[in-house]
Design goal:
The chain has a domain at 109-271 and 302-386. Helices cover 57% and strands 7% of the residues. The protein is built from 13 helices and 10 strands. The protein has helices at 15-22, 38-64, 70-82, 88-106, 112-138, 143-165, 173-179, 236-268, 287-297, 299-327, 332-338, 366-374, 379-385, and strands at residues 195-196, 201-202, 208-210, 215-217, 222-224, 229-231, 274-276, 282-284, 342-344, 357-359. The protein has a two-stranded antiparallel ribbon with strand order 1-2. A two-stranded antiparallel sheet has the order 3-4. A two-stranded antiparallel ribbon has the order 5-6. Helix 2 (38-64) packs across helix 9 (287-297) and helix 8 packs antiparallel against helix 10 (299-327). The radius of gyration is 27 Å and the shape is globular. The chain binds zinc ion (2 copies). The site of one zinc ion has 5 residues, from loops. One of its GO terms (cellular component) is Golgi membrane.
Length: 386
């Protein structure tokens, strides 16, 4: 059994350390002593960091498609609470600045999130290329596996460009007459004769006015700040492919990095080693020590891994939701609105005095629904079917 711990004055070169250095993986190990309890504190801090990143990501996702964002409402509520202690003038200024910033961020077309999106991808791929790829190459991982994230990234960037630069289905005076015939009005969520006050045109069924783009969009799904574009009938397919390829990229990066770290643990026999605590007592290596050891040995890789795991979970959930919407022929806008009504997937036989029950009349079965995403129907096709 080898000994990993170093009570600071006596550096003991362990088998695992020699192996890590032999693989040129470990770099220079700093001598640290593991104090029982410190591992738990470290893990708690790490979990707090993970929860914080998850919370911020979830908040950004929540806010990205809403007219009156959750953040804006939170700012209003916070200012109401703070009004008890802060002078009125200062409150007004702070309120104006906060709302102005949020409005600029979420309700005007801006490249800020696109730049952030590209910067995050560049940082993650920079780290993968700089460290993980080289180490995995030394550990003789298959080349095709190591190249997979780059292939997925290329596909993802292609979908990103096509989706963000595409016309999502903007309703203009010239195409209005044909678009208004594409979908039937369900009489609950989409009423015939509803006019958009900004565009001064009758809204076709399933369309919505996007306040960020300032146009009505055919089969409106949502406005995506990460793409700086609306998602509508004409780019819904690219959006779905973009989302799936992004999820696959994050999953591949997480899987390869996890596999690399587990290889390091296996090769160095870390799990069957012991360490010396500050009192010089020997303990078998446990998970908190292992995580701390890996974090201190490969800080950037573990940091990147935490981020891509969170991304995989968030994007995986969102992809599952988007696939559910695609299979049931619903848009995000319709799904959100349908929460206000009762939802029925069957022909309703509700008595007329009961509350209005929304029924999705656009679903035609999984296969045809999916086909509709990739080949949006035209007025001519609907005419042929009826
Ligand atoms: Zn409009
Ligand atoms: Zn928009």
């Amino acid at each position: 059994m080898c000994c990993l711990g170093w009570s600071c004055s006596i550096p003991v070169v362990s088998e695992s350390q020699a192996l890590l250095q032999g693989l040129s993986l470990g770099g220079s190990h700093s001598c640290f002593s593991f104090v029982p309890g410190l591992g738990m504190d470290f893990l708690t801090l790490f979990l707090v960091y993970l929860c914080f990143v998850l919370l911020v990501t979830a908040l950004l996702c929540l806010c990205s498609g809403r007219k009156e964002s959750f953040l804006a409402r939170s700012v209003t509520r916070a200012s109401q609470v703070l009004s008890l202690v802060i002078p009125t003038q200062l409150q007004r200024v702070a309120h104006r600045v906060a709302h102005g910033a949020l409005h600029r961020l979420f309700h005007t077309r801006s490249c800020l999130f696109v730049v952030l999106h590209i910067a995050l991808q560049a940082a993650v791929f920079g780290e993968y290329t700089w460290e993980v790829f080289g180490y995995c190459w030394e550990l003789q991982f298959p080349l095709l596996l190591l190249l997979l994230p780059y292939l997925l990234l290329a596909g993802n960037m292609g979908c990103f460009l096509l989706c963000s630069r595409a016309n999502p289905g903007i309703i203009t005076k010239s195409n209005h007459a044909s678009l208004v015939k594409v979908y039937a009005y369900d009489g609950v969520m989409f009423q015939r004769g509803t006019v958009c006050p900004t565009c001064t045109m009758e809204k076709p069924a399933r369309s919505k006015h996007c306040s960020v783009c300032g146009t009505c969009v055919h089969r409106f799904d949502h406005h995506c700040v990460w793409l700086n574009n609306c998602v509508g009938a004409s780019n819904a397919a690219w959006f779905l492919l973009y989302l799936l390829s992004l999820t696959a990229t994050a999953t591949a990066l997480a899987a390869i990095t996890l596999s690399f770290l587990s290889h390091v643990v296996q090769l160095s026999n870390l799990l069957h080693s012991t360490y010396l605590d500050a009192q010089g007592q020997e303990h078998p290596v446990e998970i908190p020590f292992l995580v701390q050891h890996l974090f201190l040995t490969f800080p950037r890789i573990v940091f990147m891994l935490g981020f891509v795991i969170l991304l995989t979970l968030v994007l995986g959930g969102y992809s599952a939701f988007s696939l559910y919407l695609a299979f049931t022929n619903q848009t995000t806008n319709e799904w959100c609105k349908s929460r206000r009504f009762g939802v029925s997937h069957h022909v309703s036989s509700q008595p007329p005095d009961r509350q209005v029950v929304y029924k999705n009349i656009y679903s035609k079965g999984i296969w045809r629904n999916l086909k509709e995403i990739f080949r949006p129907p035209t007025a001519l096709e609907r005419k042929k079917k009826t």
